[in-house]
# Entry
Amino acid sequence: MKYAFLVAWREYVENAKTKGFWLGMLVVPMIIFATIQVPIWLQKKGTPTRYYVLVDQSKSLGTVIENKIESGYQRRLYNELQDYARRNSTAAGDVGKFTPPSFDEFKEMGEAGFLEKLRLHLRSGSPPFKVPRRDFLQATLPSNVNIEAPLETIAEQLRPYLRGEKRVKVDGQSVSLTAAILIPADIDKQVVRPGAKRSGSANGIEYWSGNLADTQLREEVELAVNAEIRQREYAARGLDARVIREVEQTYAPIASLNPKKEAGQEAVQSVDVIRQWAPSAFVYLLWISIFAIAQMLLTNIIEEKSNRIIEVLLSSVTPGELMMGKLFGIAAVGLTMVSSWIVAMVVILTWKAGTTSAVPGQLLQVVQSSNLIPMFVIYFIFGFFIYAASILALGSVCNTLKESQSYMAVISMVMIVPLMTMTFIPKDPNGLVARTLSWIPFYTPFIMMNRVMADPPWVDIIGTTVLLIATAGFTLWMAGKVFRIGILRTGQPPKLLEVLRWLRRKS
Amino acid sequence: MNGSSQIAAPLELCQVTKRFGDFRAVEDVSFTLPQGSIYGFLGPNGAGKTTTIRMILEIIKPTSGSIRVLGESSALKVRHRIGYLPEEKGLYKKMKCWAVIAYFATLKGMSRRVAKRRAFELLERYGLKDFANSPTEALSKGMGQKVQVLAAIAHDPEFVILDEPFSGLDPVNQQVMEDIIRDMAKRGRTVLFSTHVMQHAERLCNRILLLARGRKIFDGTIADAKRTIPRRVRIETEDDIAPLQELNDVVAVSESPASNGHATTSASKHWELELRENADPQEILQVCFSRGIRLRSFNQTDPTLHEVFVRLVGPEAKEASFR
# Structure
């Protein structure tokens, strides 16, 4: 056993030195971090302020658009203020917990009022509030543009600005113009109504912009203008706008309830959705880790074989010791990688919990309150042994990586099934397909991992685990036999029948 | 086998046979290695040398017969005391030289700390100090082989098996290899090495074992081996050598070309006389004097091991190499 340990130790140390190992260690935490951080970051810094000019010959719709943009900004400002308050306020002291004002109150008091209200609750040393950048800002029209001129003329005059050849002024600074919104004087007459034919040539409101991908401003304009047009339409037809708004806001509630939860707590929250899907993420991790280190094992054994290092090894250790050493050494490599992922995940989630996005906190809660992680480790170990043993046997009969490739394709095909069913299983975690697949030992780790949160029957949990362990043991035993004979073999890989003969051979 | 009754011989093979299917790789081979000897394991390609070595190390099992290594029936029981350099050389490419040597030494039971110190020591002694921390893939073939030899002997084994240790080495490093082998023997270690280059065997070995087509052809000292083929005398003379041909001790006479390539004086010829076993070359000389045969040169040559080899396995060697 001492020699198996020595082999394992070398495998571990040498593999831990490879670039692939460190890449594997870092990539997953980076992906987790990026998934959480990038949307927040994009929202904050991603898009710069875009400048637009507005020519309103109708003298009515321009302000509607301006108001809409402004109120959008106020909403964002309010959210950021709330976020700032959550991060920097303290519950301790005489002042008690800070209760943020509602949005309507905020609209009254403004940013300064909000901050004033918060001031007493702020933790000492809090950073000052950073006012978010505006998404859209109106620029002053270039002086040569006559706002009374026909729209074609104005558009023609604005063209060089929109193309970026000339720049407009905003608060004395020259900036590039993103869009121009031109509202014709007779916009009322161009409104399209059901049944009425659209008058041929008129464009309605003209939205000029060189950037086709960014439609946000156009959408704001559309929403604002149409809401206003409809208001006017109600009035014109003698309908009570207020009544209509009230009607539009009526609805029948619909609640998602989960029968598995305690009475009174059946309501499905976003945590529950996460709870249902979190296993899939773990299945994916499990799959990647098992597949990656199984590959590692294959290249490793073939290197020794093609280098003929194996002979020296076999003059010092028995084939059994060598195989065990390899299995445990590589398993330790895999476990290190996997545990670093788990630690990184918990650390990142803890760090990000309670910030702008609610998901990390909920995810953390799910991970902590469930047996996802222990099950992951168990399934990782047994799943690894099943696949690793098969791959060791395979590696021992092949002389080059190329030779092993065609056999590896078979293993890959077997392994692809849990990946394909990965998103399907959570939808019907205790259905026929899920249960059947669970009982196939090569799939047990992945499928059962996926079902972990759905309270599978005990028969499935215990039965499949027993079967899994038995199969892992059996595969190891078989691999040991093939390994012992295959490892010294050179030349053509053996035929399947020959391998079967090896298995029947006594010791 | 002098006084080895109390100490078990490092290696004893008794009627060992190995078959792979119908192919008989080794057949009925028996031999014993005396303690502290350098034993040459000779034979043409495909003679069964590597197969025998693998059986000795218990990497494969013989079909029949018994093998005792250092007094044990299983080489694995005494693996700490055996060193092995396989025929095909290979190292872990990414590992550092010292680490490879130390790793194999720990597999032979050395503690990791001692093994590391020993690795650096050996690398320094054999001129590879500067490469101690390089990965083995950075080494030339010869250097790599040296590292592998060092890995095989790092634990100072009592019994070392080297399969073709000289192949792939330049003359300087072949010399180093010879020194390593002699040094081990001097310290009472037993060395078994296989080769098909006779010069190494001739210089190094106390005893040789000749194998061809899986069978033992010869086992004994080099002097014994040379005695298996007739002794030869080369003479150069202008006179008639008929009186010599009539001698009882002379088995055959043949004219041979000048040996050293120098132009010979017109009339003188070179003759090669093959003598009967145990014949004394001095008697030939005496006959020459008494019969008035004037000699320009008289050369009593021992056969080389190469000649012995070709003579003993000649036809089989050719056959084997074309298989």
Q: What stands out?
A: Chain A touches chain B at residues 3, 6-7, 10, 14, 17-18, 303-304, 306-309, 311-318, 488 (CB under 8 Å). The radius of gyration of chain A is 33 Å. Chain A has a mean pLDDT of 83.
